[in-house]
Amino acid sequence: FLAWSLERFSFSAARAAEQPTKKEVEALFAENPQERRGNAYSMNRVELVGGVANDPVSKTAKNDRPYAILNVITNSRLRLGNGEYRDQSERHTITAFGKTAEFIAKNIKKGQRVLVNGRLHYTGGQLDDNGVRTPRQTHIHAETVQPLARRGGDSHTEESS
C-alpha cells in the first residue's frame, strides 16, 4: 500500500509541475464552462499586512458606485541555498468598493501600515478578435482595510481619534 501511495504521490507531484496543455487552458477559459459541483467547499481569501505605497485614488464607477485603488507593499526575507538572505518586496494592487472605498478615501494615506482582508480577482485571459489571448492579471478586491497603529503610537483615523 505504501509503495502504491508513493507512486501515486510522485505522479501527482510530477503532473503539478508540468505546464497545462492547450486543451486544459482552453477549457479553463471557455465561454460556457461546464457545470461545477455546488456542494464542493472552496475558499478565496487574501490577508496582507504592509505599507501603503501612495495615496489611494478614489473613483466612481459607471453605476455611480464609489471605488478606491491603492497599492500595498509587502516585504519578505528569503533564505538562499548558501545560507544568505535576500529581501524581497512585492506591490499588490487593491481595489475596494462602496463603504470600504469611502473609508479608504477618508482615512488611508501614503506610508501607513494596513491590514487588508479580501479575495483574489482575475481579469484577462480571454481570446481577443485576432485569436490572441490577453494577459491575465491578478487583483485583490478588499472587503476590509484597517489602519494599523505604529509601534509606540496610534494610527491616525477617525475611529482612533
UniProtKB/TrEMBL annotation:
The keyword tRNA processing does not apply. Pfam families: SSB (PF00436). Keywords: DNA-binding. One of its GO terms (cellular component) is mitochondrial nucleoid. PROSITE patterns: SSB. GO terms for molecular function: single-stranded DNA binding. GO terms for biological process: mitochondrial DNA replication. It comes from the Eukaryota. CDD domains: SSB_OBF. Signal peptide: none annotated. The keyword Repeat does not apply. NCBIfam families: ssb. This is Single-strand binding family protein.
